[in-house]
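Purpose: get a first structural picture of the assembly so the mutagenesis plan has something to point at.
Setup: two entries, given in the order below. No constraints added.
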Amino acid sequence: MNDRLLIALAGQPNCGKSTVFNALTGAKQHVANYPGVTVDKMSGWYKQGDIRVDVVDLPGTYSLTFYSPEERVSRDFILNDRPDVVVNVMDASNIKRCLYLTFQVMEMENPMVLDLNMMDVAENRGVTINVEALTQILGVPVVATAMKQGRGKQDLLDAIADTGRTKAPHDLFRVDYGPMEAGISNICEMILQDPGDLGPYPARWLAIKLMEGDEEIQELIREKGARGRRILNHVQDLRNQFEADHDQDTALAVAQARYAAADKVAAGCVTLPAERKKPMSDRIDAVVCHKFMGPLVLVAVIWLLYYLSIVQGYNLTNYTWPLLAKLRGFVAAIVPAPGFIDVPLVSAFALWLMDSVNALLNYIPIFFILFGLIAVMEDSGYMPRMAFIMDRLFSRYGLHGQSTLPMVLGGIYVGGCAVPGVMSCKGIPDERSRLTTILIIPMLNCLAKVPLYVLLINIYFAAHKGLAMFFISTISLLMVLPVSKFLTTTVLKDKPTAPFVMEMPPYHMPTFRGVVGRALERVWMFIKKITSIVVALAVVIFILLQFPGISPERKTEFQTQKDQAITKFQSSIAQTPYAAPLAGDKLMEMVLYWENYKNKKMLTKGVEANAALNTKFKKINPQFFAIARPGKDKVAKKVNRAFKKLFKTRKGLLREMRKERIDASFLGKMGRVLEPATQFAGFNWRVNVALLSAFAAKESAVATLGALYEQEDDSGDGSLESRMAKSEDGFTPLHALALMMFMVLYPPCLATSIAVKLQSGSTKWMLFGMFYPMVLGISVATLIFTGGTLLGLSGLQAMGVFYAIALCTTIATGFIKTKSEFDHSRHAIA
Amino acid sequence: MKNLTVGATMTLDKLKPGYSGTIKKLSIKDKLGQRLMDMGIYPGLTLNVVRNAPFEDPMEVEIDGYFISLRHEEARFIEVESR
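Result (structure tokens, whole complex):
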């Protein structure tokens, strides 16, 4: 007796299949990929008595043809993995339509159970179903359930267990294919008699698929059949004959026969209400898809999505960031403490790693809200409406109505994130549009690009901040649309497209559990998939930035400077009672104590909390505390002053060493090597280094610039803006504009690149997705800088000219007609 | 008004919102033809054009209690008899 069962859930979209899957498996689920395609494979398990039942939730499909990857993986799974039971979930309120798929599953001759789900909806609509009669007609066990309420779950479990145990061959209902039947049995006979390897496949199903002209099955016959060619030739004759006799394509005739059979079966067991009410959904759509109201509602929904996730989510990070800071503090406490001027490599590395991971984890509140809201939009049924409204606009540029959500998430205005954007491309059925969308998402303005924009605008476009911000917010869309058009008409020209034809399902009220569950699951997946990559990259960038390091001669020089500073300090306090407590190693202790105290104090607010902090530090070391907070004690005050001066010297030395280290590092060298090429775009080697380091995460660009433009002295305004402006005399607004445009077109960060690889299913597209923005970015930046210089344009003028060019290009490319696949005459029937 | 002529044969993309028609023939096969059939659009059924999208394309039709949206260029291949 087998104590394991494998079952598969099959069903059309919107039949409540995922509700059934969740009810059966609870939290015991996981997601993987079907080999070779980017379709999610959802699986889970449950226990019934001693039997462990593994459940695979096949993608929801209307049919089982070879045209879409979802349909292919579904039928391949049934065909090759031979599950013990296929549970076909049906929408009880729409039996007739669901039977169309049911027949196709039945033809695959796998033991099966019919789950007549959503009985509650059927009852509400006044549809009555004779379950007995349906069982009789089809010869398959039928269970009526309303899984949303948990009704009928036990019956379903029992039916699955029964069928799994007995595997009794049922006297199955067969669709009558009318005038094609003779041909089908004919092919059937040939397949059964073939001495090749066609044995494991259901012969009648193969025959029907061949009559439909299924190219994948033709391939199978050719490969596994001993007389494959003969069978296929015979099929071709039969199809030609049929088409000549009936003036109808065989595939369409097969489909129509299934609908006729569904009509007949439904007539025998379903009673429809006398009068059908105008559905609620249609009344909602009268507003949501209205000519004027529709776009308004869409804009409102997008705004709400941004507001709740980006704005409010960002506010939430104020509460989560201290947790991450604590984690960093914890790591800082266990690694070796830094010396006066030499920081142990281990410590530097551990903290660098921690910072890289934290930068990412910091986004979790935003992602959680974002994923939750997407789940709400998915479950409610608003997604297809969004696609319906936007398709006209996007399809002109080779995109798809369903590109709307990914683009919104990627940051169609300002402040998105390419990772969820790329991830949400999964739903786009049209492969060409899907790839295009995946490739252009990184060009939208993600949150991490914003700091650089703000920095540059504040320095170089200070007088026209609003205008510059508007420019940068909208220019990305004006770059994305022509580029999409370009990609679809060139590199992606031959990628398969899919019909738009899409159901507009009735609206549903999303459930709290479903939404939160999915949000958590997706956040978890994000963390799992991305974190390891970010860690790996952080290591690489760390090495590139740290090595080969400062030369020994310079190191000695720094050492001497340090010794001088310490000697000076010690002689200045020699006459005070604090000389002894700060002697030798104690001085370093004081440095750390002071740092610690300052950091804590910055985070502490309120008089009481400050008092508590002071008491705490006083307890740790009263003498150190006296130096840190000298109060009215004159001697202590003097020591405090001397110490602060020493502390400043140390900071200066550390800064200078860091700068020299970056200057000498591999990354620094790369920046210099690239300078001859990037000078026409107006980038000097420092900018190159910043851009190179931005590949880990775009936020790094500003951080690296910060390190490179360290101020030499502590006087004056210490903001990065003023430092950059000061030390780069030759840097003009034109430079800044070129740099900003490069940032717009910047290759995807590593996390996004991985998402691109996952969603496009190939490393090739990932590399392409990294390569083309670089070329494009450098070209655009060069055009702006060199072009602007030659024409003698100011930054603002160049901005205006470039915007006009981009706008015209966008409008012009929108009018170029993309040749539709359906224009080819071979598809149309003359 | 072409649409008012009952019994006129035309392609679905020409049928205006608010009007209905009986599907006579699908003049396309392979991917799109199969997709239309799989979505429940086949000869003999009556459909009802519900609305066009705000930017005119795609269109939404009601067929047998279902709401389906499709582009006009796809609707060209569905021959209907207005009623």
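The mean pLDDT of chain B is 88.
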